[in-house]
Amino acid sequence: MSEPSLATGASGENALPVIDPVQNYEKIRRIGEGTYGTVYKARDRRTGEVVALKQLRMERERDGMPVTSMRELRVLQTCRHPSIVELKKVVTGSKLDSVFLVFEYCSHDLGRLVDTIPRKFSESEVKCLLLQILEAVDFMHARWIMHRDLKLSNLLLTKDSRLKICDFGLARYFRAHEEAYTPRVVTLWYRAPEILLGLETYTEAVDMWSVGCIMAELLRCEPLFPAKTEMQLLQMITALIGAPNERIWPGYSSLPLTSKMTLPDQPYNLLERELPHLSAEGTDLLNRFLTYDPDKRITARQALRHPYFRQNPFPRPRADMPQFPSAHDAELHSNQAHRRAQMEEQEADTRKKRRAQQDVDSRFGDVFGGDGGGAFGAAEPAVRAVRHRH
Ligand SMILES: Nc1ncnc2c1ncn2[C@@H]1O[C@H](COP(=O)(O)OP(=O)(O)OP(=O)(O)O)[C@@H](O)[C@H]1O
């Protein structure tokens, strides 16, 4: 196995030191379990610094590091931003048979936080969080990276209310409408309609739909579309914002799965009724995130300039955000927490099966090629020109 070279950038520029053994870290406890690994809170024995250690799953360690983990590494090397979780190091187990990513530690993930806080976020708090999400998403999209798994539990919060996007296990570079990507991305509740309807040439607009679901979830403190199946999700979306049609979404009727789905004949947009306390500007922004046609959906750059953020109540400054007890320590008993855990578990199961297949496929194909085989080629430019849609 050759882990050290795997973590090194193609040009050597962003090389991460991988010589550190994991014995230098004392595990405090497990804080997360996902598709791609187990996450621990840990302490650096030499400096006392508290970090998050993500142990990568190495089911087939004889074959080296799985391409799905390499994706996460490559994109994290490119994405240095205050609202994106910082990858500090890559460390190895004693026999070089396991690999750990060392991240800065964040005391909450927003999924657990909304399931445990005793009150809803105020609108100015939501604005503070939403602006940080949009800045990070704009940063990624300007570098032609789509995250493809934005959801509350992938949004971390530090003690000083800095929001950090994490989990780049599904992220990849994109080219506008040029390539077909895997259709099974984004956790169900946050999945855009074009993915549900089988469009494989989707774009970074899928992230913007997820941001809309996140905005509504932060305001309501409950998920907007807590569906159990794709069909149920499409029905929930239709019930809330009306059924799609060729007029509002040109090309809708020729999407691969449109003819296979029977959607309710519901012509009304009921967002205003669902969020009666949201201002007209807030409802407008949410509608622009939850726009069926991905080409008309608002971009992160446009959303950052939306009047909603310049209107009373103004975004709360980070320094004035309330302190919450760490959501990682909280006991999760509510129905909502249970539903979220069930959904995440179901999603993780599907992804584990898919990941095993991807890792097998990649060994028979081009490791840096299509979506199944790993996303980040050595020749991939770190930064490309800002897209025309911005
Ligand atoms: N830097 C961190 N600080 C604190 N907690 C973290 C950190 N990174 C991850 N976590 C916790 O671990 C959980 C899982 O992490 P992550 O999403 O990176 O793993 P994953 O295996 O890729 O998960 P998924 O199945 O969602 O793809 C997060 O939801 C969060 O609760």
Automatic annotation (TrEMBL):
Residues 332-390 are annotated as: Disordered. Gene3D superfamilies: Phosphorylase Kinase, domain 1, Transferase(Phosphotransferase) domain 1. SUPFAM superfamilies: Protein kinase-like (PK-like). It comes from the Eukaryota. Keywords: ATP-binding, Kinase, Nucleotide-binding, Serine/threonine-protein kinase, Transferase. Residues 367-376 have a biased composition (Gly residues). ATP binds at K54. One of its GO terms (biological process) is regulation of mitotic cell cycle. The keyword NADP does not apply. Residues 25-309 form the Protein kinase domain. GO terms for cellular component: nucleus. One of its GO terms (molecular function) is protein serine/threonine kinase activity. Belongs to the protein kinase superfamily. CMGC Ser/Thr protein kinase family. CDC2/CDKX subfamily. This is Protein kinase domain-containing protein. It comes from [Myrmecia] bisecta. The lineage of its organism: Eukaryota, Viridiplantae, Chlorophyta, core chlorophytes, Trebouxiophyceae.
